């Protein structure tokens, strides 16, 4: 599976060639332009093209234009497009509801932070449009999220964009003239909003474009379903959250942290199973287990000694090197996850909390056990796990499940310093109210208690990494002028 923005470039152009948007003899954007638009290294853009060339889709020659060589009859492109969108039909329905709850609050906050040069870039993109509202939707949305300085969120955005495969191409493939006229009208309004520096109006126009695109998708899917009554197997949305880091190692570390600090299935002094037994149980390689244990050691949760196995240690017993690069990365990702949860919590909570909660007994029992132990952020994980179990929205479960994974990775850092963090004392004080909120099915009390835990989590983590919090593991080049001729 192709990862990161390399994968975004590769999958976009491969799909658009298969859909018939780009045809044999058409020229693709230059590597230099991809470098500017996607904010990737030239080598990354070149590697995406080299992969397409290797698979027979394009011809890439130094000093010449990149030309599409893949040839297929028009009906093949139509069939490929129909198959792609029909295979994601159910997820698109759930995703629309989720994106309104999750991304809209984040985009609104990002729009408020747009600087003059950001508005200029969005204006240049809108001016260069011929048709295709997703040009504006993608670039405008990206600029808003870049303003939040959150790489985790940007990766999620790119994952969603990749899943939708830039639906601006649909009106051009199936000749939806009315939609194209509306896109061009909104493009002109975008220019006017940018010229006037009206961030609120720009955000409103962005939402209009997004809802129009949603309508385009569902209109197309409805028509395609009539022509192909036997839909292909559904493809769920998946967020490969850790990108360039070892995915299985981080996911497995989160599972074990849950067992130790939240589920209380492993106590201080207990030994983890052997590397071989864990590799077999979790279906991973021996080296993945070794990296996982090393990560847990750096987080102060276990101590491995040759001949004596790997023993669970009480939080705070081992000193954690907060200067270690991987520890700083975990803290940085933790803060980014907190920002996403904090800004979207109110709306997402409405999706998570149904009209009537199922049996609350097991959740209350877990919360009371954790209260007796004195956990700080643990009630948040217990309640979110409980709410996600009853949630029928697959993308919501996927995204919030991964956000909880990231937050779990940072939990040992808080637990190891709980006595020195006043925020953790305040978190513990919320436990009784959260238990009562679940027990009495009091939506407001549960919402307020969980939200307070989220609000306290960021300053607690930042206190461990003065003065400016953990160093970010990412670098981002300065934005150049963006052309809309790329996608």
What does this structure look like?
With 487 residues, the protein is mainly alpha-helical. Helices cover 66% and strands 3% of the residues. It contains 21 helices and 5 strands. The strands form 2 sheets. A 3-stranded antiparallel beta sheet has the order 1-3-2. A hairpin with a 6-residue loop joins strand 2 and strand 3 (66-68). Helix 12 (247-262) packs across helix 18 (394-416). It is globular.
A few lines on this structure:
By secondary structure, the protein is mainly alpha-helical.
SSE layout:
Layout: H1 4-19, E1 27-28, H2 31-38, H3 42-54, E2 58-59, E3 66-68, H4 74-86, H5 89-112, H6 116-127, H7 133-146, H8 151-164, H9 169-174, H10 177-195, H11 199-227, H12 247-262, H13 275-282, H14 286-298, E4 302-305, E5 309-312, H15 325-352, H16 361-373, H17 378-389, H18 394-416, H19 422-429, H20 431-439, H21 443-464
Antiparallel strand pairs: 1-3, 2-3, 4-5
Helix pairs in contact: 1-3, 1-4, 1-8, 2-3, 5-7, 5-11, 5-15, 6-7, 6-10, 7-8, 7-11, 10-11, 12-14, 12-18, 13-14, 15-18, 15-21, 16-17, 16-20, 17-18, 19-21, 20-21
Low-confidence stretches: 472-487
Q: Give the strand order of the largest sheet, numbering strands 1, 2, ... along the chain.
A: 1-3-2
Biggest sheet layout: 3 strands, antiparallel
What is the number of strand segments?
5
- Following the backbone from N to C, one meets helices and strands in this order, namely HEHHEEHHHHHHHHHHHEEHHHHHHH
The end-to-end span amounts to 21 Å
Class based on secondary structure composition and strand pairing:
mainly alpha
The percent range for helix content is 55-70%
Work out the radius of gyration.
Answer: 24 Å
Which geometry do the CA atoms define? globular
Tally the helices.
21
How much strand content do the residues show? under 5%
Average pLDDT over all residues: 86
């Amino acid at each position: 599976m192709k990862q990161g923005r390399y994968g975004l470039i590769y999958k976009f152009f491969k799909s658009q060639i298969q859909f018939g948007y780009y045809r044999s003899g058409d020229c693709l954007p230059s590597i230099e332009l991809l470098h500017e638009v996607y904010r990737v290294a030239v080598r990354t853009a070149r590697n995406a093209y080299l992969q397409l060339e290797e698979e027979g889709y394009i011809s890439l020659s130094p000093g010449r234009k990149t030309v599409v060589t893949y040839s297929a009859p028009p009906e093949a492109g139509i069939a490929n497009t129909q198959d792609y969108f029909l295979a994601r039909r159910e997820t698109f329905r759930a995703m629309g509801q989720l994106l309104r709850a999750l991304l809209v609050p984040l985009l609104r906050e990002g729009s408020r932070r747009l600087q003059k040069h950001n508005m200029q870039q969005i204006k240049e993109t809108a001016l260069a449009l011929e048709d295709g509202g997703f040009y504006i939707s993608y670039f405008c949305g990206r600029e808003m999220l870049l303003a939040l300085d959150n790489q985790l969120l940007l990766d999620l955005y790119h994952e969603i964009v990749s899943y939708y495969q830039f639906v601006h191409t649909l009106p051009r493939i199936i000749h939806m003239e009315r939609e194209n006229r509306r896109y061009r009208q909104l493009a002109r309004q975008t220019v006017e909003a940018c010229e006037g520096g009206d961030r609120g109006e720009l955000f409103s126009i962005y939402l209009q474009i997004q809802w129009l695109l949603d309508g385009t998708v569902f209109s197309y899917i409805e028509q395609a379903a009539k022509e192909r009554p036997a839909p292909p197997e559904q493809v769920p949305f998946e967020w490969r959250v850790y990108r360039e880091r070892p995915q299985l190692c981080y996911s497995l570390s989160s599972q074990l942290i849950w067992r130790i600090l939240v589920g209380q299935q492993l106590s201080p002094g207990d030994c983890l199973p052997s590397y071989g037994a864990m590799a077999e149980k979790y279906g991973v390689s021996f080296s993945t287990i070794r990296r996982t244990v090393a990560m847990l050691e750096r987080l102060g949760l276990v101590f491995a000694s040759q001949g004596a196995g790997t023993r669970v240690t009480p939080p705070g017993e081992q000193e954690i090197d907060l200067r270690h690069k991987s520890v700083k990365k975990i803290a940085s990702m933790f803060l980014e996850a907190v920002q996403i949860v904090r800004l979207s919590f109110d709306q997402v909570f409405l999706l998570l909390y149904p009209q009537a909660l199922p049996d609350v007994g097991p959740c209350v029992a877990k919360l009371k056990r954790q209260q007796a132990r004195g956990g700080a952020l643990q009630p948040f994980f217990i309640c979110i796990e409980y709410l996600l179990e009853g949630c029928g929205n697959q993308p919501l479960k996927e995204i919030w499940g991964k956000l909880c994974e990231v937050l779990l990775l940072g939990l040992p850092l808080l637990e190891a310093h709980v006595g020195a963090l006043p925020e953790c004392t305040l978190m513990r004080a919320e436990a009784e109210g959260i238990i009562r909120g679940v027990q009495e099915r009091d939506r407001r009390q549960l919402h307020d208690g969980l939200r307070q835990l989220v609000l306290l989590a960021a300053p607690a983590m930042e206190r461990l990494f003065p003065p400016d919090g953990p160093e970010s593991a990412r670098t981002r080049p300065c934005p150049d002028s963006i052309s809309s001729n790329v996608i």
